[in-house]
Amino acid sequence: MLKIQNEIKLNSHDMYTHFSNIASKYQSVRTLDTKPILYIKDKLKEKAKISMADIGCGDGRYSLEFLRCFDNSFYIHCIDNNENMLKSLEYHLVEQNITNFCVRQSDANRLPLENDSIDCIVTFNAIHHFDVPKFLSESLRALKDEGYFFIYTRLRNQNSRSIWGEHFPLFTENEDRLYELDELEQHIKNADMSIHSTRVFGYSRTSSLDRLVHQSQNSHYSTFALYDKETFDESLEIFQQNIKKNFDDLEKIKWYDENILIEIRK
Ligand SMILES: C[S@@+](CC[C@H](N)C(=O)[O-])C[C@H]1O[C@@H](n2cnc3c(N)ncnc32)[C@H](O)[C@@H]1O
User: Fold this and answer.
1) CA 68 / ligand 1 centre spacing (Å)
2) Per-residue model confidence (pLDDT) at position 9
């Protein structure tokens, strides 16, 4: 009998260890969404010189995409509380002779940024790991008056319709850290900010069953780190049966993912 993993919920130290362990292979197990990057780039096109902060930047997949979008007048502060993630980021960026960035190891609830200093704050796939009220208040402090602020995440309901939510036992039940839009809206309102726009991005995904199994075994979503070993193994077995039952071509399993980009104004 599969059990929801309430009794073994990971504390922040365990989650830190999870991200430390996965840092060196993070890019190989995650899928990069370029649509929100192009959308944000377009929003910033009138700005001559941009200072950006990427909070919970991980190994810098998204920071790197922004660096590729702009010229050398662009500067990005890459902030994460995980040392290994930042080492990995620095390695990738230095390897490509990129210099217009800095890495800062810090918690999202105490941003190492001057007051009114940043043109654009972004956070990708990380808000559910933060203390949201503190993170919002720190972002408000660091943003310039006309600053831009974007949160990219998957909502709980979007997560439940993913390939994992639909077919991997207990994935939706165990992942109770994600938010619904109204919950984020309330946090944003409480922080004296307002939502300027929301945009849902959809992605037609295709993958082989082997890759999906590999991703889950490597906890590409930290949700998998919330399972104990026995429950994970049993769930993975059932997941594979579910996929075989529902898809004809195990080399080309197709599904549709959705994420949301929230644009906030001061
Ligand atoms: C799911 S990863 C996303 C990484 C990156 N934004 C991406 O999409 O590739 C979440 C990141 O948030 C970081 N993180 C978790 N809690 C944090 C906190 N309280 N303050 C700063 N970073 C945190 C983790 O170390 C990890 O790198």
Assistant:
1) 21
2) 57
